[in-house]
Write a structure and sequence with these properties.
The protein is α+β, with helices and mostly antiparallel strands. The protein folds into two domains: 14-33 and 126-180, no CATH class; 34-123, 2-Layer Sandwich (D-Amino Acid Oxidase, Chain A, domain 2), CATH 3.30.9.10. Helices cover 22% and strands 25% of the residues. It is built from four helices and eleven strands; from the N terminus they run ββββββββααβββαα. A hairpin with a 6-residue loop joins strand 10 (130-133) and strand 11 (140-144).
């Protein structure tokens, strides 16, 4: 059961907590997710729009946001959790696109005219997402720690999570499943060998 602020009670067979770094407040022994600041930029590119169905990846990325704006990014600053939009990050994003598409980049408006959004990624210590139950018999799971690989991992990890909840076959090999396991950071209690005295 989940009680909301207005005293409404919601019931579900299973709950999945997807709260990035804040997930730790709801579980014991949750892995420490480190912050990584990232800023995306968008800018008017009505002079030469890109196809809406295409994205470009080049160490950064860009794609057509709408009929007149290009979105590109993203900066990557580990151990920072500030979310102010910074000119330096626009410059960084410009330099990324300029390194592979210099002619196109030179036609973009000056970075002082760009807009943006900064947010904080949550990254696990081993750079793999944290997926599944924190306790074996629990009906509460977690899904966090995707860092900068959300587009890559989110669809596959969602399928892994659904398979776990429904008790179905996993869509990934056991070796990958172990790397995603939410319990992988918990210290395992090793059984102690009994001490025997000879009599």
């Amino acid at each position: 059961q989940l009680k909301s602020g207005n005293e409404t009670t919601l019931e579900a067979d299973h709950v999945v907590v997807c709260c990035a770094r804040e997930s730790a407040a709801l579980f014991e022994n949750y892995p420490l997710l480190k912050p990584i600041r990232g800023q995306v930029s968008w800018v008017d590119n009505s002079f030469a729009t890109l196809p809406l169905h295409e994205a470009y990846s080049y160490g950064g990325y860009c794609m057509q946001l709408n009929t007149s704006e290009l979105i590109l990014g993203a900066s990557f600053y580990p151990n920072r959790d500030d979310q102010e939009v910074l000119l330096d990050d626009h410059v960084h994003n410009f330099e990324l696109i300029h390194s592979v598409f210099p002619h196109y980049a030179k036609q973009l408006p000056p970075v002082e005219q760009w807009q943006g959004r900064a947010s904080v990624r949550a990254q696990s210590p081993d750079y793999f997402p944290v997926v599944g139950k924190m306790q074996n018999e629990s009906r509460i799971s977690t899904f966090a720690g995707l860092g900068s690989k959300g587009f890559l991992f989110a669809p596959l990890c969602s399928e892994v999570l659904v398979a776990q909840i429904l008790g179905e076959a996993y869509p990934v090999p056991k070796s990958l499943l172990q790397k995603l396991d939410a319990q992988r950071f918990q210290k395992k209690v090793k059984p102690k060998k009994p001490y025997f005295k000879s009599q």
